[in-house]
Amino acid sequence: MEVEEMTGTSDSVAVAIAERYLADTVEHFQVWEAHYPKPEGDPSQEALASSEEASVRLIEIILEYAKETEDALLRVGTAFDANFTYATAIRLAEDGGAYSVRGVKLSSDRLGWSVVELSITTVRRIAYFCRQRSLVDRIRVYGQLVHYFHGLLGPWKSVAADVSSECISGLIIAIELLVTSLNEYHSEGHGVVVKRTGVL
């Protein structure tokens, strides 16, 4: 790969992927936002911090997926979503009961598997524990979240009957986080020209 700095190249690819995911999503964003406005108020830090171990592990798995996509693009110029699936999982509640969650199942050789519950609570918890991450890692994570939500929601015509407002509100927050992070990245004047050696 003909670049002066590998880290800069990887960062620019990460940003390009996140911007692509964002562009694919905004086509329906105004319609979603009109029907499901951004919820007001924020949960307490105590409530968010209570899930630190699970949230940090989930962030690490999401970053693995993001970097696998970047590696594939740098090697051959293309990548596809072959390693995650949308699934319904059952979780135990604090009162001993069980409840179902709808989300994305991610698998990691190093960290095992996890389900990203596609809800506004998940987005807020991930954002809380991403605060100390690098800007590009935050872009990676928020870009993946936008991608997961958009893949589940699909076109607007199938959303109203099948997807909860909690899910769409989660997407709205994820988009806001991604846009804010991308604006910060570009305001700092980042940018590297990527030249790949692989042939498609």
Supply the key terms.
200 residues, alpha+beta, 3-stranded antiparallel sheet, 7 helices, 58% helix, 13% strand, disordered N terminus
Note down, in words, how this protein is organized.
This protein has one domain (6-187). The chain is built from seven helices and three strands. It has helices at residues 6-35, 45-49, 52-76, 120-129, 135-153, 159-162, 165-187, and strands at residues 84-92, 98-108, 112-117. A hairpin with a 5-residue loop joins strand 1 (84-92) and strand 2 (98-108). Helix 1 crosses helix 3 (52-76) and helix 4 (120-129) runs parallel beside helix 7. It is globular, with a radius of gyration of 17 Å.
List the helices and strands and how they pair.
Blueprint: H1 6-35, H2 45-49, H3 52-76, E1 84-92, E2 98-108, E3 112-117, H4 120-129, H5 135-153, H6 159-162, H7 165-187
Antiparallel strand pairs: 1-2, 2-3
Helix pairs in contact: 1-3, 1-5, 1-7, 3-4, 3-5, 4-7, 5-7
Summarize, please:
The protein is of the alpha+beta class and 200 residues long. The protein has helices spanning 6-35, 45-49, 52-76, 120-129, 135-153, 159-162, 165-187; strands at 84-92, 98-108, 112-117.
Structural class: alpha+beta
Q: Strand sequence of the main sheet, in spatial order?
A: 1-2-3
**Content of β-strand:** 5-15%
Nearest-angstrom radius of gyration?
A: 17 Å
How much helicity do the residues have? 55-70%
> Gap between N and C termini, in Å?
15 Å
Low-confidence stretches: 1-6, 156-161, 192-200
**Domain tally:** 1
Largest sheet: 3 strands, antiparallel
CA-based shape = globular
Q: How many alpha or pi helices? A: 7
User: Using DSSP, what is the number of strands?
Assistant: 3
Q: Would you list the SSEs in sequence order as H and E?
A: HHHEEEHHHH
Mean pLDDT: 76
